Here is the input.
Amino acid sequence: MSAHVSWPSGKNRAPVYIHMGNGADEILKDGFLTAFLKGSVVRTFGVLLDADSKPRGRYSRIHTLCLSLFPAMPPDLPPEGLVVDNPISGKRFGVWIMPDNSAEGCLETFLRHLVPDVSEPVWQHAVESMRGAKAIGCPCHDVHISKANLYTWLAWQDPPGQSPGQSLTRKVLDPHSASASPFVAWFRRLYEL
Here is the structure.
C-alpha cells in the first residue's frame, strides 16, 4: 500500500495496524472476529483471507459471525470487497477474499497479476518448469501450485528469492498494475486513506 498512500516506516507510524493472524481457521472460529469488533480499541477492522478453494464459504462464515454487529452486511460478498458501517456503534468493517472476492486462489494468485508484462516470458517458463517438476514427482499439492509458480519466478529475479513484500517494494512486482486497483480502492475506502 505504500506505493498508493503515505505509509511512513517505523513503529506506530503506519496509518493502519496490520495483524498477521494464523490464517482462516483462527479468524473464522467463534468469538475471534466479534471480540475485535466489540472491543473499544478498534474502530475500523478489515479482514483479508485467501479464498483457497472456497471463496463463497469463507464469506458465508464471516457473514454468519458478524451479521448481528453489522446488519447491513449483504448476503454475498460484493465484487469490490465489503465495507460496511454500523452507525450506532461507530464501527466500520471490511472483508477482502484473495484473489478477487470471487475466484478460488490466494495472495499468490493475486500477486501473479502484478508480474510486469516484460517478465511474462520468464513467468511462463516458471509455470512450465513447475508443470515439469510435477510430472517427475514433485510433491507440491495442487492447491499450492500458484504459490510454487510465484516463488519459482521470484527465485529467478535479481536478487533471487525475494519475499513478495520485498518484490513489491523493489518494483519487481508492479504495485501499479491495473489488477491491483480494485484491492487498493477497497483498502483506501475501508481505512479512509
